[in-house]
Amino acid sequence: MNKVPSIFDRRLLALRRLRAESMAVPGADFLFARAAEDLGERLASVQRRFSAAAIIGPDTGQLAATLAAAAPIGELKHVAIEDGPTGERLALEPASLDLAVSVLALQWVNDLPGVLAQIRRALRPDGLLLAVLAGGETLKELRDSVTAAESELRGGASPRVAPFADIRDMGGLLQRAGFALPVADTDRLVVRYDSLFALARDLRAMGATNVLTARDPRPLTRAIAARAAEIYTERHADADGRVRATFELVSISGWAPDASQPKPLKPGSAAMRLEDAIAGAAKTRNGDGTV
């Protein structure tokens, strides 16, 4: 049995989230709100009723309200991602849900394939998973600036920004977990700040600061932080001096397999060759076979 990697210190993550809740900074949940709104729009396009649904991970209340407005849902429950001796676990009974949703929680799990497999088992046939998680482009400017400053002043850099999910891997992870009709796409949001320090305040208010297990126990010194802010401005500022911060939102969806779902054609079963279809379309368009 493969050992689950320990990428994130989830105990520290819980403490950071509690601190963020106590801060209650107005507007600090803008990223969660944006992701929840996007998920709600996707759910509304499905146009069906879900008798039993679950929110996987934290919710400020926005996601539950968004779901209620997007689709008719019977029972809705909240399920925490719990830490166990062999990895994260979800307190979900097999085949107990028609819908599972998650916003900005799955990027913090150490065993994403395992959590996706648990969600798949909890879905009834033709049940739906919709989730949004932070993608690999998230905070790329911050990663670049802090790494450069720490390398310059310490002669080496430790990981400070999490290795978020790559969209190119998500479809494969969904298939590996047993989902049918997997879809993954991405949306990039660029937020402008007065400085690196303003961005850092927002990250603290989100409970999204460094919780990597391999983090350097030494805090950034004032000199390194100041140099990182200088590099950030040099490399990632607009003409007005404000700096850019990229947030990539990766949206994924997958269905629990069911006989009613469309099936791909078997190789070699097509009724027409691709070359013949292209030639026919060209003749129809121009009347003379030219494109």
TrEMBL record:
It comes from the Bacteria. One of its GO terms (biological process) is methylation. InterPro entries: Malonyl-ACP_OMT, Methyltransf_11, SAM-dependent_MTases_sf. Residues 87-130 form the Methyltransferase type domain. Keywords: Methyltransferase, Transferase. Signal peptide: none annotated. Pfam families: Methyltransf_11 (PF08241). GO terms for molecular function: S-adenosylmethionine-dependent methyltransferase activity. PANTHER family: ARGININE-HYDROXYLASE NDUFAF5, MITOCHONDRIAL. This is SAM-dependent methyltransferase. It comes from Kaistia hirudinis. The lineage of its organism: Bacteria, Pseudomonadati, Pseudomonadota, Alphaproteobacteria, Hyphomicrobiales.
